[in-house]
Design a protein that fits this description.
- A hairpin with a 2-residue loop joins strand 8 and strand 9.
- By secondary structure, the protein is mainly beta.
- The strands form 8 sheets. Strands 11-12-13-14-30-24-23-18-21 form a 9-stranded antiparallel β-sheet, with no helix packed on it. Strands 17-28-25-22-19-20 form a 6-stranded antiparallel β-sheet.
- The protein has a single domain, classed as Distorted Sandwich (Beta-galactosidase, Chain A, domain 5).
- The two termini are 27 Å apart.
Length: 342
């Protein structure tokens, strides 16, 4: 089902696509940024909770700069110094995060109207054409992302991309989750599990330097589960650099597997994150500050957590990092799933 989500400042129509299942679970996605706007799910008391942060209409997404729910590319996360070399050519990108290029530079995919190429009762598929030199990257790139809501309360995102030139590519979704409800405040009491034995080490600009750090004996160890707030204030260099958790965890195993989970004791809601990608950026909203959101909510510091499945940040500049380049003529496919239960 589709309804109006308003018009952009330049008069373009934005739609809101509503997916429902028989249990009453509902996902609402806009073609502005192919962004997840709402995820409605019943808690242990049967109360319908909206579990993602967002805005009431398209104008909020135009004004906002924190990537609520958006599809991020051409390369998610940070590219150090805003440049990379591919073949014999050095490409310069927009620097929008100190010296780095973050989430594609200033001309975000999340700030564009995507085409709707397929819609059913349980799914909607968006397409974006990103021309050669868009954001500074080589290649005419076609991207699609399909959102599917299952009867088992799982929201699956299937990504596909093709380019006519070799190009760096790392797509992700930037939803901010709070399993107590989008307007409920801090997520520090919610319990996270991250299936990772190590993280990519970062420099002073939060860019991975090619090295790995074991989580053993550090505040980065979530293998057995713990509240986000348990160790977030520890005097540990990676936490101090990120102002909390804002790090790429190296997911154990290969293929499609569980990367992380989150549990809220207050609502009894649990979310499991599955992916076939090697990394997941876990971010505790350390730079969120009085952001006006849905229904008059004001989102605060550490009011949500992001679970951004991805190739390792700055992979194009690190030879030992996997999956940095989509080859011309090849098809990229990837799947991420957020599965809910109670």
């Amino acid at each position: 089902m589709q309804q109006s989500f308003g018009k952009t400042a330049d008069g373009k129509y934005a739609g809101l696509f509503i997916l429902k299942n028989s249990r009453g679970t509902q996902a609402e996605i806009t073609n502005y940024g192919a962004s997840l706007v709402r995820f409605l799910y019943k808690d242990k008391n049967g109360i319908l909770q909206d579990l993602v942060l967002g805005y009431d209409n398209v104008s909020g997404y135009e004004k906002g700069d924190v990537f609520f729910g958006s599809t991020v590319g051409r390369v998610a996360n940070r590219i150090g110094e805003g440049r990379f070399k591919l073949g014999d050519i050095t490409y310069e990108l927009t620097r929008n995060d100190g010296p780095n290029s973050l989430h594609g530079g200033r001309d975000y995919y999340g700030k564009r109207i995507w085409d709707v190429i397929d819609e059913t009762d349980s799914s909607v598929t968006f397409h974006l054409f990103s021309p050669d030199k868009d954001q500074g990257y080589p290649g005419n790139l076609h991207i699609s992302v399909k959102y599917t809501l299952s009867e088992e309360d799982a929201l699956t995102l299937d990504y596909t991309a093709e380019s006519d030139k070799d190009t760096p590519l790392s797509l992700t979704n930037h939803s901010y989750f709070n399993l107590a409800g989008h307007d409920s405040g801090s997520i520090l009491s919610q319990i996270a599990v991250i299936h990772a034995d190590k993280v990519t080490e970062i420099d002073q600009n939060l860019v991975p330097n090619g090295k790995f750090v074991s989580v053993e004996g550090t505040p980065m160890d979530f293998r057995n589960g713990k509240p986000f707030g348990q160790d977030i204030g520890e005097d540990y260099y990676l936490l101090k650099m990120g102002k909390g958790y804002d790090h790429n965890f190296v997911i154990t195993g290969g293929g499609y597997r569980e990367a992380a989970s989150l549990f809220c004791p207050e609502t009894g809601i649990e979310m499991h994150v599955f992916t076939d990608l090697p990394g997941i950026q876990v971010y505790t909203s350390n730079f969120l500050d009085h952001e006006p959101g849905k229904g008059g909510a004001i989102y605060q510091f550490r009011g949500a957590a992001c679970f951004e499945t991805q190739f390792f940040p700055n992979a194009i500049n690190q030879e030992n990092f996997p999956g940095a380049v989509l080859k011309a003529g090849e098809t990229f496919r990837s799947r991420t799933c957020y599965a809910f239960s109670k």
